[in-house]
Design the sequence.
């Protein structure tokens, strides 16, 4: 299994990306192809005492920043570490591609270089998130700010397949993010999507309000990319505020610090449960090969977990399962 890694994508590149890749080599027994400036990669490796294992470096002269236009991956920065990674994936040099870089550029590269699975109208970014019960999936998290009802219908179908084949849920509950649970609530888009989804070949459980999501009242939350990204970022922010608040409460005085010792293991478990780093990043569903968007602020352990998402994809043949569903006659 060979994973292509954009060594210069993300806020902490290249050092944390390379470290995370090496952790993945050890834990998941994968080979790594690092794309990026070879001299800078070697300089980083030597400076930080990193032992490159089972790793090939493919030189790339440019970097797509978070401020670059998404389409720069196709033309202006076609020699960037991200663009080179997508081309290697397309040529079959590796089995999956992982980047912590510009989300828009990853979406364009996945759609126009890797290309969509036949029958999929729009690929979507799907993010595994914690809930009070068990992990849930939110999609779209930013690939499609504007959607049609049929896109949302297909997001539900792709989410259903992901949960069944990757997280092994028997009959995942698919819900539509809305400002009320009633069928008549929401924008024209959401109402039209509801009409399609209630007759879908998956377990559609209706609308879900934002406050229900953290309780795990559905397994897959479907939204347009604008709404989904807001939910994701708010979710991460609230979790961080709550954990910081709990920490501050126990650090107030000697008695509170002593009390903390009695509940530390439980708090540590809760912190791990709601830590986005445990999931590493998001997956691009609907394209022909595995593309993983790692968190932009990924450290080594977070990036290692993003590579784990690619390994899950490959071990469970998710793309071939999607192709069967979207192309039943092929």
Sequence:
């Amino acid at each position: 299994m060979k994973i292509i890694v954009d060594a210069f994508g993300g806020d902490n590149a290249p050092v944390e990306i390379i470290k995370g890749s090496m952790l993945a080599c050890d834990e998941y027994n994968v080979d790594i192809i690092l794309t990026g400036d070879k001299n800078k990669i070697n300089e980083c490796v030597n400076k930080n005492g990193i032992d490159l294992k089972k790793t090939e470096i493919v030189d790339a002269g440019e970097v797509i920043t978070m401020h670059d236009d998404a389409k720069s991956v196709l033309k202006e920065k076609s020699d960037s570490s991200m663009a080179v990674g997508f081309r290697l994936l397309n040529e079959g040099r590796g089995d999956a591609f992982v980047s912590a870089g510009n989300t828009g550029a990853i979406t364009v590269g996945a759609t126009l270089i890797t290309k969509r699975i036949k029958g999929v109208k729009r690929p979507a970014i799907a993010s595994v998130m914690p809930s009070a019960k068990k992990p849930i999936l939110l999609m779209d998290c930013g690939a499609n700010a504007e959607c049609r009802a049929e896109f949302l219908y297909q997001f539900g179908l792709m989410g259903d397949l992901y949960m069944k084949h990757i997280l092994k849920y028997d009959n995942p509950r698919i819900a539509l993010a809305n400002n009320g649970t009633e069928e008549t609530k929401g924008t024209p888009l959401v109402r039209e999507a509801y009409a399609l989804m209630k007759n879908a070949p998956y377990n559609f459980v209706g609308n879900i309000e934002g406050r229900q999501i953290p309780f795990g009242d559905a397994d897959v939350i479907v939204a347009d990319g604008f709404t989904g990204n807001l939910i994701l970022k708010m979710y991460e922010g609230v979790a961080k505020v709550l954990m910081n608040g709990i920490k501050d409460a126990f650090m107030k005085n000697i008695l509170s610090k002593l009390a903390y010792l009695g509940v530390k293991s439980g708090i540590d478990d809760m912190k791990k449960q709601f830590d986005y780093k445990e999931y590493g990043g998001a997956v691009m569903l609907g394209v022909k090969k595995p593309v993983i968007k790692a968190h932009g602020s990924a450290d080594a352990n977070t990036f290692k977990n993003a590579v784990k998402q690619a390994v899950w994809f490959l071990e469970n043949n998710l793309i071939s399962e999607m192709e069967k569903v979207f192309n039943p006659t092929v």
Notes: The first helix runs from residue 15 to 28. The two ends are 26 Å apart (CA to CA).
